[in-house]
Design a protein that fits this description.
The protein is α/β, with parallel strands linked by helices. Helices cover 42% and strands 20% of the residues. The chain is built from ten helices and ten strands. The strands form two sheets. Strands 3-2-1-4-5 form a five-stranded mixed sheet, with helices on both faces. Helix 5 packs parallel to helix 7.
Length: 338
């Protein structure tokens, strides 16, 4: 079964064709990074306009690279939530038009579900149940995945996500967009004990995350140094900050794994590409005897192959959308309001 995936939730216009949820036949991504870099972050209106300019070409290229026509496609899967509302609407409306004109069924896909599904492509042997730590730019969740379309939230961020905190720290240190990636690069040889940051926790909710205090702490560290005329060693500050964020993620993951009857741990989302998180999670998994899975690096960020993969499982579960499908800026991963 061949699924065409369409993704436009943020600053990547993407289309892909995936067979049976596991095999990539094509995967095309048109990135907007250079356009947004001069602003230090994604500008929603610019993102929406660039999606409009690129989406037709990207979808056609995905079909051509797969050597298929739209009539060869079994379903069109599209990201409809969560994300930038204007950007989402470009993908949703294009997918609706394509479905209406071709007669190919339309399948709405939750963005975070598709991040989890990127692991099904990287690891064809992976099947639920498992625990998943979802760490993307705007979301941090611990999710118990009982089935391909059956999710239970075990823990979540109460304020900022880990990716947001990393991006803000990078921007405060004067690093270019995308911040988290560049922060990881400059921190490779830094001293992760050089700076001290508070260890975030949420009282009475030990599996939930909070990163707003950490974000404020790194901003204050930089500003205080500037006011005193002190020099900040960015490599050390970055390494110390990343270490604190990763420690929080690992601590809660360890607690969450004690609540489930599985030794399989999956990581998903853009932050799952972070080198420190991968190294320390590998060490933690080895200590506990867990089987650990990551998406390949090319599938950590936003892409349409993961949308097509999750779309396959949504499709075979009976999920369909009609021309009333709308986009939603936010939605719980367990919900299916469309």
């Amino acid at each position: 079964m061949r699924i065409l995936g369409i993704e436009s939730s943020c600053d990547e216009t993407a289309a892909a064709v995936v067979e049976d949820g596991r095999k990539i036949l094509s995967n095309v991504v048109s990135t907007q990074i250079e356009k947004h870099k001069i602003f230090g972050g994604v500008v929603p209106e610019i993102a929406s306009r660039l999606h409009t300019e690129s989406i037709s070409y990207v979808v056609n290229e995905a079909l051509e690279k797969a050597q298929l026509k739209i009539s060869d496609i079994d379903a069109i899967a599209v990201t409809y939530t969560p994300g930038l509302i204007g950007a989402l609407l470009v993908g949703v409306n294009y997918a609706k038009g394509l479905s209406l004109s071709s007669g190919v069924p339309l399948v709405p896909v939750h963005h975070l579900r598709s991040h989890i599904a990127s692991n099904y492509i990287t690891h064809p042997e992976l099947e639920p149940p498992f625990m998943c730590l979802v760490v993307s730019g705007g979301n941090t969740l611990l999710v118990k995945v009982d089935g391909y379309t059956d999710f239970e939230i075990i823990g979540r961020t109460r304020d900022d996500a880990a990716g947001e905190a990393l991006d803000k720290a990078a921007r405060t240190m004067g690093l270019p967009y995308p911040g988290g990636v560049n922060l990881d690069k400059i921190s490779q040889n830094g001293d992760d004990k050089a700076y001290s940051f508070p260890k975030p926790r949420v009282d009475a909710s030990p599996l939930d995350f909070s990163f707003s205090g950490l974000k404020t702490s790194v901003i204050n560290t930089v500003h205080n140094a500037e006011q005193k005329g002190e020099t900040i060693i960015r490599e050390n500050l970055g390494a110390s900050f990343i270490n604190t964020v990763v420690t929080s993620l690992i601590d809660n993951t360890e607690k969450a794994m004690q609540t489930v009857d599985t030794n399989k741990l999956v990581l998903a989302g853009g932050v799952s590409a972070n080198s420190v998180l991968r190294r320390r999670m590998d060490e933690t998994a080895k200590k506990h005897g867990w089987r650990i899975y990551y998406p390949e690096l090319s599938l950590c960020g936003d892409n349409a192959a993961m949308v097509a993969s999750q779309g396959y499982y949504e499709f075979i579960s009976g999920k369909r959308a009609d021309m009333s499908l709308n986009a939603y800026a936010t939605m719980n991963i367990t919900e299916a309001n469309y």
